[in-house]
Write a structure and sequence with these properties.
Layout (H helix, E strand, L loop, with lengths): L31 E6 L7 E6 L2 E4 H7 L4 H9 L6 H6 L1 H15 L6 H4 L3 E3 L3 E3 L8 E4 L3 H11 L15 E3 L5 E3 L4 E2 L2 E4 L8 E4 L3 E2 L2 E7 L18 E8 L2 E2 L3 H4 L13 E3 L4 E2 L7 E2 L17 H6 L1 E2 L2 E7 L1 H5 L5 E7 H4 L4 H10 L9 E3 L14 H4 L7 E2 L5 E2 L7 E8 L7 E2 L3 E6 L5
Parallel strand pairs: 6-22, 8-16, 9-27
Antiparallel strand pairs: 1-2, 1-5, 2-3, 3-4, 6-7, 10-11, 12-15, 13-14, 13-22, 14-16, 14-17, 18-19, 20-21, 20-25, 23-24, 25-26, 25-27
């Protein structure tokens, strides 16, 4: 991913809010999402976040002046879904990014034509950023895998295949929801260690998982693996992702085939897709613990070693119902970095997923798995932060938490920031726990 004029930290927009310090959406970002006017029932449309505004892409196509490449890309999303643009591949996406950057830049001749195409973000509602086809959740966070392994297998925390193969399972795309959608506490079977038989009821160990979501752009044909050196050409962009988990249902059901009801009741995705191009200034070398084996050749390349990781700062914030009622803000309970948490890069995930001939399609989603750092306050789940529920988190108002309770609001935050670059962010990824349905 090469840097170009769209990444220039001195670049400013005629949308004044995009120039504010700390905004998630300066002109250097330009993420895509789906929106409609709040409270309406109109069809979803594709928008680009710029400052505190949304550029209606369909309206911009009609009112602006575009070169043929950008016009074709804008036409692809006129129906309100990102997948046709995703299918066009990286070259078309880069051409559109350049055209949008030029049109929204300070001094652009397009200003008067595009000004009516802007809507305040506070006046719109957002949904999942594209129609998601298939969803695979990986397990790339080695510190998370080791910490959880120690809780259940103290003598053998990291299973022997972990350092050789990107572990994943196929999840449910139907229960992926957008930021702000409530998460209903799931029902399921649990079995206490001293019980003769399982019981059925609401989960009592409801947890969050701090993850990134990788959305696939151009797909591959069935039976044709994607080489790791070309895998990033098949990635469209990145979101925040919270794969909520029922930790008491999970251990009883997952043997021998893996997660099921403990994972399929809801996963929250942030509404804006930050493209791979926007992330180009924030690449990092792949970091692995000392003594890790070399990847097998099909998972290895100079590019993935030297710049395959993403330097994204990540945080988990919690606000209880009592805090909300008292007007107390959310508190940060964890902070980490994706670059120091992930054992496998997104390119390696694509290469492995397709290595057996699986055909990925535009809009498919990969979850990174929980991204925990090496320190005790860098954990991406309550399971780790509380040592399996043995060490409650103490909150400023006197409350404590081992796992999530009804009324709790859990938020993920993510951004990229380096000297000589403009800070970019991912927007909100929030969900509030609501009670389980009556049995």
């Amino acid at each position: 991913m090469r840097l170009d004029e769209t990444h220039d930290p001195a670049l400013r927009s005629w949308v004044a809010s995009a120039n504010a310090d700390g905004t998630d959406f300066p002109i250097q970002n330009l993420p895509f999402g789906r929106f409609r006017r709040a409270g309406g029932t109109a069809a979803w449309r594709i928008g680009v976040a710029i400052g505190d505004q949304v550029l209606d892409v369909r309206a911009a196509r009609e009112h602006g002046r575009w070169n043929p490449g950008a016009a074709a890309a804008l036409d692809a999303v006129a129906g309100g879904d990102l997948r046709p643009l995703m299918a066009l591949g990286a070259q078309a996406r880069r051409a559109l990014r350049t055209a949008l950057s030029q049109a929204l830049a300070e001094g652009s001749a397009q200003r008067d034509a595009l000004l009516p195409c802007l809507l305040p973000q506070e006046a719109v509602e957002l949904t999942v950023p594209c129609a998601i086809g298939d969803y695979t959740d990986f397990y790339t966070g080695i510190h998370h895998a080791t910490a959880v392994g120690k809780l259940f297998r103290p003598d053998n925390p990291l299973l022997p295949n972990y350092q050789w193969v990107p572990i994943g399972y196929h999840g449910r795309s139907s229960s992926i929801v957008a930021n702000g959608h409530p998460i209903r506490r799931p029902l399921g079977q649990t079995k206490a260690a001293d019980a003769a038989q399982p019981t059925f009821g609401p989960s009592r160990r409801l947890d969050c998982e701090l993850e990134l979501g990788f959305l696939i752009g151009q797909g591959n044909a069935l039976g044709e693996p994607v080489p790791v050196a070309r895998a990033e050409e098949h990635l469209f962009g990145v979101t925040l992702f919270n794969d909520w988990s029922a930790r008491d249902i999970q251990p009883w059901e997952y043997q021998p085939l893996g997660p099921f009801l403990s994972k399929n009741f809801g996963s929250t995705i942030s509404p804006w897709v930050v493209t791979m191009e926007a992330l180009a200034p924030f690449r990092a070398p792949l970091q692995r613990p000392a003594g890790s084996p070399e990847p097998l050749p099909y998972l290895d390349s100079a590019e993935t070693r030297g710049s395959g990781a993403l330097d994204i700062r990540l945080e988990v914030w919690l606000q209880t119902a009592a805090m909300h009622e008292a007007g107390a803000p959310a508190v940060r309970i964890s902070a980490t970095s994706a670059a120091e948490a992930a054992y496998w890069t997104a390119a390696q995930l694509v290469a492995h997923h397709t290595s057996g001939g699986c055909n990925l399609q535009p809009g498919d989603l990969f979850g990174s798995g929980t991204l925990s750092g090496p320190g005790p306050q860098q954990a991406g789940s309550l399971l780790e932060l509380t040592q399996g529920g043995k060490q409650p988190i103490r909150l400023p108002n006197g409350e404590s938490r081992t796992f999530l309770e009804d009324g709790d609001t859990l938020s993920l935050r993510g951004w990229c920031e380096r000297p000589g670059t403009r800070r970019i962010g991912f927007g909100p990824c929030t969900g509030t726990i609501v009670p389980a349905p009556a049995i």
